[in-house]
């Protein structure tokens, strides 16, 4: 299972502040979810209409699939990108052709 955010080059170029606000909110959400397990469980039970046992299972699956800060290592990223692009017969030479973490790195640096 993979989870990722994507954006068009136009959005990155024309509205970087909006993208950064979105990324900042996602990073805060990841941290909050990790640091406030009980609140996350209550939210899951309410939104998903499930009991606590089910919410705990969902939480554990979710938390194990998210990194601490929203980044991913190059080897994992390459595998995920190549799997996705293979469906369309597309091959890439470098990850930088399809991935740019510049704004996320700026958000993480600002959060320190």
Note down, in words, how this protein is organized.
The structure is a single chain. The protein has 112 residues and is mainly alpha-helical. The protein has one domain. Helix content is 67%, strand content 0%. It contains six helices and no strands. The chain has helices at residues 9-14, 16-35, 37-48, 52-65, 74-86, 102-111. The chain is globular, with a radius of gyration of 16 Å. The protein starts with 8 loop residues before the first helix and ends with a helix. The model has no long low-confidence stretch (mean pLDDT 89).
Helix content estimate: 55-70%
Report the major sheet: none
| Total domain units | 1
Could you give the count of β-strands? 0
Strand content: under 5%
Structural class: mainly alpha
Mean of the pLDDT scores?
89
Instruction: State the end-to-end CA separation.
Output: 29 Å
From N to C, what is the helix and strand string? HHHHHH
Radius of gyration, CA atoms, in whole angstroms:
16 Å
Number of helices: 6
Unreliable residue runs? none
Q: Indicate the overall shape.
A: globular
């Amino acid at each position: 299972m993979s989870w990722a955010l994507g954006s068009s080059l136009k959005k990155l170029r024309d509205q970087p502040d909006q993208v950064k606000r979105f990324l900042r909110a996602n990073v805060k959400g990841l941290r909050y979810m990790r640091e406030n397990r009980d609140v996350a469980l209550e939210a899951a039970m309410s939104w998903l209409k499930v009991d606590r046992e089910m919410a705990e299972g969902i939480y554990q699956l979710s938390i194990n699939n998210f990194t601490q800060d929203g980044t991913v290592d190059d080897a994992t990223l390459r595998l995920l990108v190549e799997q996705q692009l293979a469906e369309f017969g597309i091959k890439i030479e470098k990850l930088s052709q399809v991935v740019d973490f510049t704004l996320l790195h700026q958000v993480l640096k600002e959060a320190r």
